[in-house]
Amino acid sequence: MMGAIAGDIIGSVYEFGRTKSKEFPLFGPASAFTDDSVLTVAVAQAILTDGDYRRSALDFGRRYPDAGYGGLFRNWLNSPDPKPYNSWGNGSAMRASPVGFAFDSVEDVLREAKRSAEFTHDHPEGIKGAQATALAVFLARTEWDKDLIRSEVTSHFGYDLDRTIDDIRPGYGFDESCQRTVPEAIIAFLESDSYEDAIRNAISLGGDSDTLACIAGGIAEAYYGPLPGVITEQVKGILPADLWRVVEEFYTKFHFA
């Protein structure tokens, strides 16, 4: 899941200063973790403990109230008794990568991805986005076959994954829906030749850059393996100690190098 967190941090600079180029610095003084990282860690913590995704999201979200949440999620976080709000936003997908790393069958991955989404994003498209992301991560780490990932995700969810980055980029803009974020992020991975290339593809679309890179980055890590050491060190230096501790515990339990 560090690939997702690194994607979030790298993309944070370009969320509102968007670029249509693949030529940009990966890190700089303004690079920061956002809600994508906080909630990815929350999902990981729930998997490590009691499986209560809602409680973990409330815990970590309230620790970091200024991480850049959308308005509906912020209202949810501040509610005395938060309820699902029928969202199809890409927040369900951005936090789903730990599910694809931790569970060992398609059935378990799809079930847990649904659970990780529906405490806020109970709209069918919100659930679908989380499931598609987690399934892509699972297949990337177990099958190592991009054609299979493309066909399985298309078969399960009906996303059009036959487009290219060059097809998408000219007319693409900021979009917070799962419907217009998850397939594009998966394509950014499918068209890549390395973890870094997947991140550059995702950000160069000029959309919701941190979330596109978060989703693509989680899948890319599952496929290409451990991140380059220089990226890992940058992430460790930016992420607060309590979030980094969960990352380390997750990797120790699930035996990722």
Descriptive notes:
- The protein has 257 residues and is an all-alpha fold.
- The chain has a single domain, classed as ADP-ribosylglycohydrolase fold.
- Helix content is 62%, strand content 0%.
- The longest helix is centred in the middle third of the chain and has 19 residues, at 124-142.
- The N and C termini lie close together (12 Å).
- The mean pLDDT is 97.
Index terms:
ADP-ribosylglycohydrolase fold; 15 helices; about 260 residues
What is the number of strand segments?
0
Distance between the termini: 12 Å
Number of domains: 1
The helical percent reads 55-70%
What Rg is obtained from the alpha carbons, in whole angstroms?
A: 16 Å
In short:
With 257 residues, this protein is mostly helical. 62% of the residues lie in helices and 0% in strands.
SSE diagram, text form:
Layout: H1 2-12, H2 35-48, H3 53-63, H4 71-78, H5 91-94, H6 97-102, H7 106-118, H8 124-142, H9 146-157, H10 165-168, H11 182-190, H12 195-203, H13 209-224, H14 229-238, H15 241-254
